[in-house]
């Protein structure tokens, strides 16, 4: 930040303008496609999967999200960082594998849906009332209260 970044920012803007004029950039999928088609496009065209399988839970959620009008949101895949597959033991860039979609969730504030591939776990959400409110120190004994 600050004034020192002005020259860099101007260079980035200039490069983006030049790239836009000379670019063949295109999105991987049309945002109007159904959710499953977006997932399949990412899996098969980008990750090089041979197929995509959807659990009953994922199918149910996709139908629910579509009824709710969330099917036009972009897709952000949640999968292992070790491979283009959902299998962390299948390193690097394998081809022809099945990408299992076990669930799908929505992050409506951020504006996207995210399929959970394989055994991918997510962090739990934070409570509305932070837990530190319940932690105290007994002034007489010095014991920490409410921590466990």
Gist of the model:
The chain has 148 residues and is α+β, with helices and mostly antiparallel strands.
Overall description:
The protein is α+β, with helices and mostly antiparallel strands and 148 residues long. The chain is built from 3 helices and 5 strands, in the order ααβαββββ. The chain has a 3-stranded mixed β-sheet. A two-stranded antiparallel ribbon has the order 4-5. The longest helix has 17 residues, at 6-22. The model has no long low-confidence stretch (mean pLDDT 89).
List keywords for this structure.
three-stranded mixed beta sheet; two-stranded antiparallel sheet; alpha+beta; 148 residues; 5 strands; 3 helices
Topology readout:
Blueprint: H1 6-22, H2 35-46, E1 51-54, H3 56-67, E2 98-107, E3 112-117, E4 136-137, E5 144-145
Parallel strand pairs: 1-2
Antiparallel strand pairs: 2-3, 4-5
């Amino acid at each position: 930040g600050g004034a020192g970044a002005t020259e860099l920012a101007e260079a980035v803007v200039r490069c983006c303008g030049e790239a836009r004029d000379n670019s063949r950039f295109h999105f991987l999928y049309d945002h109007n496609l159904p959710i499953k088609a977006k997932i399949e496009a990412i899996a098969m065209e980008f990750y090089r999967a041979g197929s995509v399988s959807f659990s009953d839970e994922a199918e149910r959620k996709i139908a629910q999200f579509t009824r709710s009008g969330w099917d036009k949101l972009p897709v952000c895949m949640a999968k292992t960082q070790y491979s283009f597959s959902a299998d962390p033991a299948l390193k690097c860039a394998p081809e022809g594998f099945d990408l299992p979609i076990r669930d799908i969730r929505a992050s409506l504030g951020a504006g996207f849906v995210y399929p959970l591939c394989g055994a991918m776990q997510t962090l739990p959400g934070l409570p509305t009332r932070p837990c530190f409110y319940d932690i105290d120190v007994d002034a007489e004994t010095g014991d920490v209260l409410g921590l466990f």
